[in-house]
Amino acid sequence: MIEASASPGNITVRDLLSSLRALQVLSMVMTDSAGEDEILDLAVSSVPSLSRCRAEAVWLDGAWRSVHSLRGRVGARADLEGQIGLLGRAGGPLRSAGLGWIWAFPLSSRGGASGHLVVGAPEPPPDHERSVIQALAQQTGVALANARLLARERATASELRTTLEAFRHSMDIHDRLTRVAAAGEGLEGIVRAVHQLTGHPVAIEDRAGILQAWAGPDRPDPYPRDAPARRERMLRQALAAGRPVRDGGRLLALALSREDIFGVVALIDPGGLAGEAEQIALEHGATVLAMELARLRSVAETELRLGRDLLDELLAGHDTQGVLKRAGALGYDLDQVHRVVVVEGHSRTRDEEYFFHAVRRCARDLGIGSLLGVRAGAVVILADAAGDWERLRSAVLSDVGRGSCRLGVGGCYDSIGDLPRSYREAQMALRTQKAARTEDRATVFDELGVYRVLAGVEDPGTVERYVRDWLGPLIDYDARKDSELVVTLSGYLECGGSYDGAAKALSVHRSTLRYRLERIREVLGHDLGDPDTRFNLQLATRAWATLQAMGEP
User: Fold this and answer.
1) For FRET with 154, which of 25, 313, 394, 406 sits at 20 to 30 Å CA-CA?
2) 191 touches 203 (CB < 8 A)
């Protein structure tokens, strides 16, 4: 058995074995340690028990590491920092005031040195103690590398679990909304599913901001709408973003087909609490909504095209039995009294397609008729016998904004073979309105009175001769002077001889009207105050308007 003397420079085999066993235990403890701070504390606190030295500092990842066992002992770190940066991976001696010996041992691992354990003593320790501390530093470096690797693996596993959970949740959302689409639950099913998936009230709006469906509490009544300019700005911003965007207390996602905006799904979130899961549900909802609206649009366009073809055949008086069969297949009941309504006008932007769909929406909402077409630039409706035609006109004007709208309503017939006649009557009602220069309104052929009688005269030449007898000089004067004295006379007589009423109807000043009436008296040579004369002149002006409407010279 080898024994060492009592001098400090000698060591017994027992002491050496004890140090090695301590290193082995330290290695096992460090391997099981929870984190870097615990590993470093073990290393720093073990230095005095393995040698006559003590740990002065820990340099790790380019900075001094705060370790519990070193707190309150800053040492000469400012002096050491410049030196330790020059040592490289091997470590080596340092200089520090107050210490006879100070050494930086590398905290090495397979990944290379990541730092140093700085150890100091009043005088240089024996070689075997330096070897033990070097082994301790090496074990510490390995333990730190393993701890970091384990932390990275745990972080990766946690991220993977989070990703998988989010993926499963996304698939659940996708499956739920796909089932809604497959089951044909429509807009109500979509908005209800997104509400249940997010817990937030949800709205579906069309491009213009009109509410189409709602799910959840606190539905506003009336539903608010943005001004058109602001709405368009918001839609452009959302389209450019390519993801849900916040608009005040709402989160919005666009239902798109390429860059065609079909509608908007709005998540009501005034507190800004919606997170990633809610955004995923909103995006999936918008995708399914786009598919549903594209399907509905395709069906509507097909029905509209077939309906237009059917209406053209009805107005042309084609094969009655064949038309009835096609109408039944499309769901139209023609076994009832119908009449034809012709709608002329334009939207604020003069978009003919928009005007057509505005008329279609209003006719449908008012229950007037759903079979529509376009002829000669006007919208034609196959309508039921009864209807509030002025209400329809006002509704169309409200829908299109600052535009114009006038209606001609044909007579009622219980045979579809008479629909061409009703169509001609509706056109006649419109032309009579325009010829009389009245303001836009709904004109019903059955209510035209004498106009209706005059239009039914078999020999228009008789009517024309009557007009020439009473209005010939005035008609010729208008032709020479490009004036409107016949129109002025008609307006004056239709207002019962009222100056104020006629001036307003003709949109002229009262003095202008008075001047024109004087010219009329001079040209015609008639006394406008005589009852018989006024009767014949009024009948003549109505006959003239009828001839104008019929296209007669």
Assistant:
1) 25
2) yes
Per the CB < 8 A criterion, the answer to whether 374 and 316 are in contact is no
Q: Which CATH number fits domain 184-298: 3.30.470.20, 3.40.50.720, 3.30.450.40, 3.40.190.10?
A: 3.30.450.40
CB 255 within 8 A of CB 239: no
Return the CATH superfamily for domain 13-151: GAF domain (3.30.450.40)
How many angstroms from the chain centroid is the CA of residue 224?
15
Quick check: 265 and 252 in contact, CB under 8 A?
A: yes
pLDDT at 5 over 50: no
Amino acid at 427: Q
**Secondary structure element (H or E) that encloses residue 161, with its range:** helix 127-182
Percent of the chain with pLDDT over 70: 86
CB 452 within 8 A of CB 543: no
The residues pairing with 407 across neighbouring beta strands, listed in sequence order, are 343, 442
The pTM of this model reads 0.45
Rounded distance, CA 363 to CA 230, Å?
29
Give 3-state DSSP helix, strand, coil % of the chain, rounded to 5. 55, 15, 30
270 token code pair:
């005034």
User: Where, residue-wise, is CATH 3.30.450.40 in the chain?
Assistant: 13-151, 184-298
- Among 142, 160, 191, 107, smallest CA distance to 33 is for 142
Question: Is the pLDDT confidence value at 482 over 50?
Answer: yes
Distance CA 194, CA 286 (A): 10
Domain 456-550 has CATH 1.10.10.2840: yes
- The predicted-structure confidence for 282-326, as pLDDT tens digits, reads as follows 888 888 887 777 776 776 666 667 777 777 777 777 667 777 777
Sign of CA dihedral 401, 406, 408, 409: positive
